[in-house]
Structures are given as C-alpha cells and as structure tokens.
Amino acid sequence: MTYFVTRTVNRLAWLLIGMFVVSGVHAEDTANKPATKKPSTAKTEEEDKTSGGRYSFNRIHDPNGIGKFYMGREIAHVMGWQGAGWLERSTREEEERLTLLVKSLRLKPGMTIADIGAGSGVISILMAEQIGNEGKVIAVDVQDEMLKLLRTKLEKRGVRNVVPHKGKAKTPQLKPNSVDLALMVDVYHEFEYPYEMLLEISRSLKPGGRVVFVEYRKEDPTVPIKLVHKMTEKQVKKEAGLPELNLKWKETIGVLPRQHIVVFEKQKSKSE
Ligand SMILES: C[S@@+](CC[C@H](N)C(=O)[O-])C[C@H]1O[C@@H](n2cnc3c(N)ncnc32)[C@H](O)[C@@H]1O
C-alpha cells in the first residue's frame, strides 16, 4: 500500500515538474519569434572557406539555431516577417520598456541613426520623434516584406524622418563615417555573418559614434526567451571587442526588465 502511494506521489510530482517545464518553454515558444528563414548550410559552409574559418558548423544543434557557430555561440534563426505582429504586440512596452530604452540612448536633434534590423520599425519611429526633422533614422532590414510593412506604416502616420533601407546579410550598405548611432535591438544574435556586419557597422560610424546592442539577458534564466535568442554581456563584449573593429566598450545600461543595453564607441583611427 505504502509502495503504491509513494509511487503515485512520485509520478504526480514528476508530472507536475514536467508540466511546469513544458509550459515555461511553451510560453516562451508562443511569445517568441517564429523562424522562417533557414540559410542553406551547404552554401554557407562553401562561403565560409573564404571567411578565414571564422565560423564552424555542427549538425547537432539547438533547433532554434542555424547550426552555425561564432566565437562559442550558435547563431539564431532570422525572425520571419510573419512575426511582425509579435514586434507590435500591445504588451511590449510593459515587457521591454521601449520608451525607457530610447530615453537611455540620449538622442539629440539632428542625429543620424541606423536602426539595424529595424523590422516593422517600432523603435525607429520612437527614435524619430526625438531627433527632429533635421535628424534621420535609417531603418535597415534584409527582408523586403518588413520594409514594405514599414513603408505603409510611415505613410499612414506621416513620418518623414525614417528612411527604409535594404541591407544584405554581410553589410547594412551604409556610407562610411556617416552614422552617429547604430542600434541593434534583438537583432545581432541572428546575423548570419556577425563579424562582417560589425566590421561594416563600425566603418559606417563617425569617430566617436556609438554602436548599441540590446539583447535579452542570457545570464537570467527567468527571461522567457529561447536560449539562442539571448546573449550574455560577456559574449557581446567578446565579439565587439575584436581590435580590428575599433570599438571601445563605454557602458552597460541595466534599466530594462529583460534586456541589457551594451554601448560601444568608435575610436578615432590613428591617421585621424
Ligand atoms: C527580431 S526582429 C527585431 C526588429 C526590431 N529591431 C524590433 O526590435 O522591433 C530582427 C530583424 O532583424 C532583421 N535582420 C536579420 N539579419 C539582418 C541583417 N544582417 N541586416 C539587417 N537586418 C537583419 C530581420 O529581418 C528582422 O526584421
């Protein structure tokens, strides 16, 4: 009798633990970004032969990642344009405090900002309100559908200082020394070519310009986001700290509930 009671209690306990784990993962799965763009691994491996062996590949990997690894972390799937509704969700301000994020950036009228991986432009528009008509937000994205959604929104709202801009997987296609601030909100971890992108972003910055990473805190297991879509501050610093990028860490702002804001400044090159 005691044996059956103990066994039933044990089974119930395991069932409850299982339900808790599954519901936790599910909550984050449903709230999280759908992945629809899977790059061809064969093509990527082929291309990688010319990228100095910077990337490695593994068939066994996180299902939310692309099986391609950079400096010890797996690169995540790109969020498809079908997930734009998730970026626009009504709970986002409460979960991510976007207005506080924009305030933390200390924007000034007249600035040129590149919102890299702008998606449907939620943050581009918030920033555009702060920089006046002389300022400009270049909203860069690799997906035409996202840019189309953004254009429609800008027209509807009569926003004139946000410019949709098509980027490529390896480059945001920005002019050198033209940008005061490059912002990446929940984007960097899904760059297929993070090294090449950062090199180009650094080139696009004016000396003293800033590049800002806003990533879900991987250090915090309570942040309900899939693992490969999170980054530790240490990892961000490791990747942005490569000497050829010419970036210097300035500060990490910890005011947001789920993300850290990691800020780097472009150094003057020796010839300047
Ligand atoms: C999760 S969404 C974030 C959108 C926006 N930053 C926001 O927080 O509302 C990531 C976006 O980055 C874009 N993206 C991914 N790789 C990119 C790249 N190499 N250059 C520009 N955009 C990229 C995707 O197309 C997608 O729209």
Describe this structure in words.
It is a single chain. With 272 residues, the chain is α/β, with parallel strands linked by helices. The chain has two domains: 1-31; 91-266, 3-Layer(aba) Sandwich (Rossmann fold). 36% of the residues lie in helices and 26% in strands. The protein has helices at residues 2-31, 41-48, 84-87, 92-96, 98-104, 122-131, 144-157, 194-204, 233-240; strands at 35-37, 55-57, 65-70, 73-76, 78-79, 112-116, 136-141, 162-166, 179-185, 205-217, 230-231, 247-253, 259-266. The strands form three sheets. Strands 6, 7, 8, 9, 10, 11, 12 and 13 form an eight-stranded mixed β-sheet that branches. A three-stranded antiparallel β-sheet has the order 2-3-4, covered by helices on one side. Strand 7 (136-141), helix 7 (144-157) and strand 8 (162-166) form a beta-alpha-beta unit. The longest helix is centred in the first third of the chain and has 30 residues, at 2-31. The termini are far apart. The model is unreliable at 1-31 and 38-42 (pLDDT under 50). It binds S-adenosylmethionine. Residues 33, 78-79, 87, 116-119, 122-123, 140-143, 146, 167, 169, 172, 185-187, 190-191, 197 line the site of S-adenosylmethionine (SAM). S-adenosylmethionine is lined by residues 33, 78-79, 87, 116-119, 122-123, 140-143, 146, 167, 169, 172, 185-187, 190-191, 197.
